[in-house]
Amino acid sequence: xxxxxxxGIPAPSPSGSPAPGSPARNRLRPRRSCLAVPGSNPRFLxxxxxxxxxxxxxxxxxxxxxxxxxxxxxxxxxxxxxGDWTGKTRVVRVxxxxxxxxxxxxxxxxxxxGQNLDCLMLPKVQDAQQxxxxxxxxxxxxxxxxxxxxxxxxxxxxxxxxxLVNVDAIAAASPRLETIxxxxxxxxxSISMKTLVVGEQPPGYGADAYHYILMRIxxxxxxxxxxxxxxPYLQIRDVDGYREVARRAAxxxxxxxxxxxxxxxxxxxxxxxxxxxxxxxxxxxxxAYEWHTSAAGGAKGSAMLGDEMIDEASRKMALVISGKGxxxxxxxxxxxEAPEG
Length: 341
Hints:
Elements: E1 33-38, H1 42-48, E2 55-59, H2 69-82, E3 89-93, H3 102-113, E4 119-122, H4 128-145, E5 153-158, H5 161-165, H6 167-171, E6 177-182, H7 184-190, H8 211-223, E7 227-230, H9 239-252, E8 256-259, H10 262-271, H11 276-292, E9 303-305, E10 308-310, H12 312-327
Parallel strand pairs: 1-2, 1-8, 2-3, 3-4, 4-5, 5-6, 6-7, 7-8
Antiparallel strand pairs: 9-10
Helix pairs in contact: 2-3, 3-4, 9-10, 11-12
């Protein structure tokens, strides 16, 4: 794998996919809530279309029994082509490369519904070459079918110790990559963590057992301008527990979290959106900084916004909050007024 020439910019894909920053790339899709839907259940697939999740991923992996996987591929193709997924990022999670299902998952879904698909999620990614292999296969299908090459993104799911150790190389593996996703259940098993409750702290450990894992994934994602997504919380009736775990990821800077039940969607959308107060303040900082650095505002490098000093660092921080607010469809309730004189 060729290392990126510039920090934060992935190297060109060996398959000839578009370079980062091209119009085909879309790493800024809202993903506050990422709803998992079994690909073998037509009723759930239909219901998911009317739920307010930012992203829906139709699952061919853990949510489908082995005997149901082949039929689920065709059920998913039908749902993508005939369903109304307006306002949602449409993702299909295929099986991982250690199984015999992966290549047929990709071919059937992309050939059948590639024009109505935004991303493929690849689970249990352990090294960069697994992402490269998916990129190559996608490119061949796109060229064969006459689709736009590189439009379909990839989400890489980190679910074991080897994947975490290799996460930097994984994040740089393809310009198709849009997210790095933490898969806690398989990960906990892979490191022999002493708990059966996914997302909860293991007994006997006084600190946050997930902090290093979450930060490691986040650093790799941000280095290559990718989104970072936290995985599921399996106690689906415990919305308070979900909120607690989601707030941890949101506080670190994660962009969203999986939801396994409609009851978790509202909490996820709320937690991974800025508050109205923070969003308004961020927009005010951006407007104020733009004015104060202009000729009309005196071309100042720093200035006061009320009792707060703002500068270029303030602008960068405000861009993060305003970007998340705009992606969530928020509307500001305040406006900037240039000071007189």
